[in-house]
Amino acid sequence: MNSLRYLGFDDLFLLRYMLEGHSLTSAAKILGLTQPAVTQRIRKIEKVFGCRLFNKVGRNIKLTSEGQAICNKAVAALTLMGEGSHERGELVLNVGTRPAAGVSWLWPAISNLRKKHPYYTFHSYFGSGEELLTRLVSGQLDAVLTSAPIASKSVDSVEVAEETYVFVGAPSVAKKIKKMSDIRDQILVEHDRSFPFMRYINPRDKAKLQYRDVWFLGSIVTMMQAIEKGFGIGILPEYIAQKSLTSGKLKKLGIKVRLSSDNFRLV
Questions:
Q1: pLDDT in tens, 212-250
Q2: Which among 193, 252, 201, 245 has a CA at the least distance from the CA of 217?
Q3: Residue 81: pLDDT over 70
Q4: Edge-to-edge, what's the strand order for the sheet holding 120-126?
Q5: Cα(43)–Cα(41) distance, rounded to whole angstroms?
Q6: Predicted confidence (pLDDT) at residue 8 exceeds the cutoff of 80
Q7: Are the beta carbons of 93 and 121 closer than 8 angstroms?
Q8: Is 60 exceeded by the pLDDT of residue 198?
Q9: Whole-prediction pTM value?
């Protein structure tokens, strides 16, 4: 079995740079990654092949014989893919995330990556967490940025940012809610029928939560717009709601509801 198939393009380029004698610091700079991220990639590659890539010699590193053989294989793989000419369009990466994260995070990141790596072509795909992971496992996507639970053991992930949540309403609605029982008269606005944000409420608080009706709106952006207009209350990622909280379009509900946090992962 060819273990190279478990590596991404940046892994292959990292191995090439190591063969060329670059330090981990310079390789990280070329790839546009942090040194901890490069170190994590090295550990992943060593785990895939079951050997050490290099030994430390003073402050420098020296490839082991196994490491040199693996680096040579990586260079050969890149040559077969036509990497040598570095022309745009030769290497394609399809990255998926949910719409709100795509607009605020993924699109700016891809714009920067295209400048740093002109020989890559990056495509973005927006969808729900479960759909994205299904597409990743089936090979339709190369990477996914998500906070959704990961059940498959066939993928690896790296945590990139913490995601916190807030329970909010329009100011005119929020002022009517002083205690948990006041929510009984309100409409709960949600993303979809799986109630993705309700899972961040502490189970004891969730058991006390009763509402008049539920409105499923299909996207986080639409959720926020409906809540801003006073159509109901809901839980939103804090980084998305922050601008509206600052401007006064939204207000945190003055009730004691404990919300857990999550982590965005690059899968």
A1: 999 998 888 889 999 999 999 999 988 888 999 999 999
A2: 193
A3: no
A4: 120-126, 91-97, 143-146, 262-266, 158-163
A5: 5
A6: no
A7: yes
A8: yes
A9: 0.55
Single-letter code of the amino acid located at 35? Q
Q: Is the CB of residue 229 less than 8 Å from the CB of residue 170?
A: yes
- The rounded distance, in Å, linking the Cα atoms of 25 and 126 is 33
Residue 25: both structure tokens together: 């610091």
Instruction: Quote the tokens at residue 140.
Output: 């339709």
**What letter represents residue 140's amino acid?**
Q
Alpha carbons 11 and 97: distance in angstroms, whole number = 22
CA distance 246 to 217: 24
Q: Which two tokens stand for residue 73?
A: 């294989």
Q: How many CB atoms lie within 10 A of CB 208?
A: 13
Rounded to whole angstroms, the Cα distance separating 225 from 220 reads 9
List the one residue out of 22, 56, 47, 265 whose CA is nearest residue 161.
Answer: 265
Higher pLDDT, 201 or 26: 201
Please, is 72 exposed, middle or buried when counting C-beta atoms within 10 Å of its C-beta (0-12, 13-18, 19+)?
A: middle
- Distance separating alpha carbons of residues 174 and 4, to the nearest angstrom: 55
What DSSP string runs through 172-230? HHHTT--SGGGGGGSEEEESSTT-TTGGGB-HHHHHH---SEEEE-SSHHHHHHHHHTT
DSSP string, 11-52: HHHHHHHHHTT--HHHHHHHHT--HHHHHHHHHHHHHHHTS-
